[in-house]
Design goal:
With about 650 residues, the chain is mostly beta strands. The protein contains 3 helices and 52 strands. Among the domains are: about 365-455, Immunoglobulins (Immunoglobulin-like); about 460-555, Immunoglobulins (Immunoglobulin-like, Sandwich), CATH 2.60.40.10; about 560-655, Macroglobulin (MG2) domain (Immunoglobulin-like), CATH 2.60.40.1930. A hairpin with an 8-residue loop joins strand 51 and strand 52. The protein is elongated.
Length: about 650
């Protein structure tokens, strides 16, 4: 049982495990047979009821019988079809069984589809497509049991008959609800299936699979294929369609997207002609079967394919197990068993599904966690390996915690390794942090956990700053930005030191965006030109120091001259003309600047601004000046620090 449990869970390592039981490196194995039933007439088809209690068997003489899955004993028989039962299918509710058959010699007849009551074996309804050579090759009940779909099929049709027919009937009254005919295409049908929700109906013919929408009977898409499509099935969730062809191609088995018909993958190495196929109930595996009498001599086997990546995980091909091949196969709904028809003697074999649910107690597991080294902000790969008996266990969820905090989870790969990217957070600082990994356990494998160490190292930092521009006496804002070199994440709460022209001018603390801002006033009288700005971070236990530089360009400043108003004097009298000098846009008072006063363009005096930026000239109105308003100006001629500036006002002369 350990071998079966491992095969059902260690996806990708299956070949290794099978090699322990069977030396072949190709992943060949033997079925775990529960019982074998050899009917009086060779069996041709098999189906398992939705409740998992019964196995339906069709044979070469048209017989249909039900066997108990528990012991393989017959408990009910139906009269069956005229000669040969090609397919059997239960309704989704399990209350009805459809059988489809035909005479095996030409001309085939079409009146061979019957629906049976499973409860008592009585015939519910019989269907016919009319006088259609080729007979009925396949039939299926809709998921709701309301309809039965039938396809005609013969690999060689009689002379003069080249049509292919699909018919859909109501089970309640036998009325045909819709028909599809391809005239002259000579495409015998080989397989048919409804999607699990009943929204699509797929028919495999020669060279393609046609898919219809059941709501309006329009064709949804066509799946191009080589050879005769002898088998097709929808995945249990309805998301995919698997098709198998009777052909020598190396791509006889293919997986398609059910929503749009896009090819998901062709199963590499699948060749020789597919007789039948089925999805496991969980959709993780597709089993397909071949006969040695198929187009290629490498038939006569049951192949187990992993749907996740298309890997061929194992093969049943021993003659004593599968005879000359397998005609039909089906999974039990719980996934515990697979039933198949052995071609050479027509026996029904019930075997345990190697990927089915386990029996017995969960296997003990062990885990190892890789030690890691990283820096704050760096992405490291947390890694843990889950094993059973030294072999990696695939497809299991491993939960990680670092330094007591949830870090996330990852699923083990084919080797049992779970890998998860993890960004080292700043919390916790430099030093060792414990990595905890745990597997919660399931029905197959016991829980386990392990721990490792993440060694967090001191982290490099980067600084950048911005060029600034200001005039003498004005305030500018020096800025520095501190971030990690690992992920360029901002570092907050650190003090940055600022220097201008080699002199330290202050410090500021970075905010959550790593930004520190320091107001700086350019000293009065500073010469114009570039000055270096240096920003530095001294480092701490978590981060290495860093520094950067930029340029402060000192420009000539602008001045604003404000003139005191009103100014009034009589003829021959005197009045103070006053100007106030301030920087612009800082509006700081500017002392020591010469201001030239003029009235109507005639200079009347000069004064130097005081500490409050004020310059004054006493102006005496000439005796000959007529009463009226006269403009006056206050002009600064400019110097090395400030550009020229001017202000003006009105002197009102009274009699």
């Amino acid at each position: 049982m350990l071998r079966v449990r491992l095969l059902s869970s260690l996806v990708g390592t299956t070949a290794l495990l099978i090699g322990l039981a069977c030396p072949s490196a190709l992943g060949q194995s033997r079925p775990d047979v529960v019982w074998t039933y050899v009917p009086s007439s060779p069996a041709t088809s098999v189906a398992i009821s939705p409740d998992g209690s019964a196995v339906a068997v069709g044979d070469t003489v048209g017989g249909v019988r039900l066997l108990r899955i528990a012991d393989g004993k017959t408990f009910r028989e139906m009269p069956g079809n005229p000669n040969y039962v090609f397919t059997l299918a239960f309704s989704q509710g399990g209350d009805m069984l459809v059988s489809c058959g035909a005479h095996v010699s030409l001309p085939y007849r079409a009146d061979t589809v019957k629906v049976w009551s499973v409860a008592d074996g009585t015939l519910v309804r019989q269907f016919t497509l009319g006088d259609v050579p080729g007979g009925t090759r396949c039939a299926v009940l809709s998921p709701d049991g309301a309809s039965v779909a039938i396809g005609t099929g013969a690999y060689q049709l009689p002379a003069g008959w080249d049509d292919t027919v699909l018919g859909v009937f109501r089970v309640l009254d036998g009325v045909r609800t819709w028909t599809k005919v391809w005239v002259g295409e000579h495409m015998p049908s080989g397989s048919i299936s409804y999607s699990p929700d009943g929204s699509q109906l797929a028919l495999g013919v020669y060279g393609c699979v046609r898919v219809w929408r059941t709501t309006d009977q329009t064709e949804a898409y066509t799946l191009a294929h080589s050879g005769w499509i002898r088998a097709l099935a929808y995945s249990p969730d309805g998301s995919a369609v698997c098709t198998g062809a009777w052909d020598d191609s190396e791509q006889v088995l293919r997986l398609w997207n059910a929503s749009d018909g896009a090819l998901i993958r062709a199963f590499a190495g699948a060749s020789g002609g597919t007789n039948c196929l089925a999805f496991s109930p969980d959709g993780s595996v597709v089993a397909d079967a071949r006969e040695r009498s198929g187009p290629s001599s490498n038939g006569g086997a049951v192949h187990w394919w992993l749907t996740a990546d298309g890997t061929l995980s194992q093969t049943w091909d021993q003659p004593e197990d599968v005879g000359s091949g397998v005609k039909s196969l089906a999974f039990s709904p719980d996934g515990a068993y697979v039933a198949y028809v052995r071609s050479n003697d027509g026996a029904i074999v019930l075997a345990r599904n190697p990927y089915g649910p386990p029996t017995g107690p969960p296997e003990e597991t062990s885990m190892v966690v890789s030690n890691m080294t990283g820096k704050i902000g760096q992405t490291v790969g947390l890694a843990a390996r889950l094993t059973a008996l030294g072999v990696g266990v695939a497809g299991k969820t491993i939960t990680f915690r670092v330094h007591g905090a949830d870090a996330g989870s990852a699923v083990t790969d084919a080797s049992g390794w779970a890998h998860m990217p993890y960004v080292v957070p700043e919390d916790g600082g430099v030093g060792n942090r414990f990595i905890e990994a745990s597997f919660a356990g399931d029905a197959s494998f016991a829980a386990s956990d392990a721990a490792g160490v993440l060694m967090v190292q001191r982290t490099d930092t980067k600084l950048f700053t911005l060029d600034r521009s200001a005039s003498s006496g004005d305030v500018c804002f020096l800025k520095g930005y501190l971030y990690r070199s690992t992920d360029r994440g901002w570092i907050g709460g650190r003090s940055l030191a600022f220097s201008v022209d080699g002199s330290q001018v202050g410090a500021a603390v970075t905010d959550t965006e790593g930004r520190a801002v320091l107001p700086y006033m350019v000293p009065e009288g500073s010469a114009t030109g570039p000055l270096p700005i240096d920003v530095s971070w001294a480092g701490d236990a978590d981060y290495y120091p860093s520094s950067t530089s930029s340029t402060l360009t000192v420009t000539k400043g602008a001045l604003y001259i404000w003139v005191l108003q009103p100014r009034i004097a009589s003829v021959g009298g005197s009045v103070y003309l006053r100007a106030y000098v301030r920087s612009w846009p800082g509006l700081n008072w500017k002392p020591g600047l010469p201001i030239v006063f003029s009235v109507e363009g005639t200079e009347v005096g000069t004064d130097v601004s005081n500490a409050e930026g004020r310059a004054s000239v006493l102006y005496t109105v000439p005796a000959e000046m007529a009463p009226g308003d006269y403009p006056f100006t206050c002009d600064f001629p400019g110097n090395a620090t400030y550009d020229p500036a001017s202000g003006g006002g009105i002197v009102t002369v009274t009699p």
